[in-house]
Amino acid sequence: MGSKYTRGCCGWLIVALIAALVATAAMFAIMKRKPGGRHIKPLPVPGPPGAIDSKYGDALGVALQFFQVQKAGKLENNQIPWRGDSALTDGKEAGLDLSKGMYDAGDHMKFTFPMAFTATVLSWSVLEYGDQMSAAKQLDPALDALKWITDFLIAAHPSDNVLYIQVGDPDLDHNCWERPETMTEKRPLTQINKKTPGSDVAAEAAAAMAAASMVFKSRDTTYSDVLLQHAQKLFTFADTYRGLSSESYPKLQDFYNSTSYVDELLWAASWLYHATGDQTYLSYVTVQNGKSYADWGRPTWFSWDDKNPGTQVLLSRLNFFGSKQISNAENEGLKMYRDTAEAVICGLIPDSPQATASRTGGLVWISGWNSLQHATNAAFLSVVYSDYMLSTRTAAVQCSGKYYSPTDIRNFAASQANYILGDNPMKLSYLVGYGSSYPKQVHHRGASIPADAKTGCKGFEYLHSPSPNPNVATGALVGGPFQNDTFVDSRDNAVQTESSTYNSGTLVGLLSGLVTTSSVVQSFT
Predict the structure, then answer these.
(1) CATH number at 54-292+426-515
(2) Where is the signal peptide (predicted)?
């Protein structure tokens, strides 16, 4: 009896086990068929760059031209017929040559903070997608634009604890409407130092030069080394002498009012770790300061002011690809960055349970002023994150119980790019020079004034003219639509028609990520 009972029990166990396996298999089959709630199979790792998507390739070529439009200084191989040399004496009062760099937007100010951010994201774009840029024949223009900014940053950092953060007086500048080639008003310099600190700007400049040092490492070792030395010194300066530039110089609050500097410190240290491999920087962002500074678990919007989402995605790269030298404590910190990055992504995918409701019909929309900034930045981070997933065969992210593949995330990024390029209720390309219909009255001094006009400082008739700009600011990404998807193409409507250099940095990255598909490198160095 005992042996018979044992055999019967075992038989029932086997039957039960088989039934459980069948049920489990059925459950997974159902999950696979159910959108957003499925078990997703990992996609194959892409190989080298494939076929070029002509839409994104053409748009990338257009977008990169805006950096040529915005250049200051003595121009080299100028391809913009209505632009010429300008700001040649910038920095002269301090015995420096600050003639290079780029004008911030539709005016002629040089603000180091957003300019450095432009260089950081442009460097990031090249590091992730340089092979794809090359396949689209757009890598050289990107490198040229980047070096024009980093040359300025090097010149603006003449000693360890001094950085020039502004060229020009915004009140004087905005009181004039003139071409940059003919401006004659004074262009005073503003610096941060030990007594008047600006950790936000110094750290952003450090991030830019650390990232750019990796871009140029295989192209010009000497220049790369110079950039890295400046980056390390600027980070030490920013971390040692702490303070906000907008508190040291309250007038900055009317233009680039940075709300914190700890996000820039984390951002800079992250780039320095990638550039040097020095564990000190990794410990800084994870063990020492991650919990205090990183806002783990709280997704925010990536911008010239808030670098946290960018840092979260950038450090996720280390968690995706791994490193033998990383300690358990550092890995725990990296996991928190990645978890927060995934929260950012979950907030962007339209049908995610965590999706932000702040949208137009199809565009992420956060602010009426320069509304395309946040959509472009969010889409850039999304395409980068989706490629990290693809390159490591990570099947999905989970958003409150629903699952989304790299393709889902990439589709969101493409939807934002497509909206910008004309797939919107206005049927208007917000990228000037792309497509057949785009804004004709961009709020931009140089574009609005004929190249042979003699206006002096007071050329305001061109600001208020109802006529299209005589010069096309090719590649300008204008401010963008209101939340109801409307857009008023008027030069006086700066909220919607002004373009900015930093918008173009992430747009180039977004388009470079979409122009084709390839696996991203496991390490930048």
Answers:
(1) 1.50.10.10
(2) none
